[in-house]
Amino acid sequence: MGELEHKYEVEIKTTENRQKIPEDVKTELKAAGMMDEKGKIKLKGVSPKMLKKMKQEYVDCPVLKADIHFVQCFVCPNFQSRVMGKVLCKGKPL
Ligand code: SF4
What we know:
5-stranded antiparallel sheet, binds iron/sulfur cluster, alpha+beta, single chain, 5 strands
């Protein structure tokens, strides 16, 4: 098995603060069936426990040059996988 092609390894950070998902991202999540009308996130293969953890995680995104909620990163087209506390990111312009 070859190494996955990715441009960045982005460290996943944790915050105690409540993070908000931007409205436009919510709209996208809803359109993709990954969020219900009440704003509850539903990701396939992600347990409620994992989701709770994910909600406190963020990445300093090298493409968008901003702190991005991990849920947003997880559904980003550049997201490849999560390995040992890091996101393997394709790094393509968004
Ligand atoms: S996967 Fe998307 S949101 Fe996550 S670090 Fe890469 S470009 Fe940023």
